[in-house]
Amino acid sequence: xxxxxxxxxxxxxxxxxxxxxxxxxxxxxxxxxxxxxxxxxxxxxxxxxxxxxxxxxxxxxxxxxxxxxxxxxxxxxxxxxxxxxxxxxxxxxxxxxxxxxxxxxxxxxxxxxxxxxxxxxxxxxxxxxxxxxxxxxxxxxxxxxxxxxxxxxxxxxxxxxxxxxxxxxxx
Length: 171
Description:
By secondary structure, the chain is an all-alpha fold. Helices cover about 90% and strands about 0% of the residues. It contains five helices and no strands. It has helices spanning about 1-35, 40-45, 50-90, 90-120, 125-170. The longest helix is centred in the last third of the chain and has 46 residues, at about 125-170.
């Protein structure tokens, strides 16, 4: 699991940023070509700062989403799958509870993300991202709780096994 995570992070760091900068370059070229085709009256009615902001800041945000979004999604999905595999190998009943709650959390996050998009004019991107990360943190807390239950169960099983072994050695 950690090796796979390291490979994904390597890919994100090396290949992802190269791909992202190429995408950003292509989008900038397309916008520049489009700006070249616009009439002079368009520029008379627009603020130069607003146009430059579109080319720089907004385009950077779009390219970051386009090249980090799929990579982050892939690493998150692989991490969840890996954690579920480990949990199922330890205690399948508790892992099943976690596996069944994941779709519920995903639906809640998607509904809230949609509502954030609707009310997006009132919320900044940082607040919306904080709230989404908070919901993801709740899912992580649930996973931590279940892993604690699994660890407690394994500790109890080990203690019972030790007790049986001690009783057998006394006989």
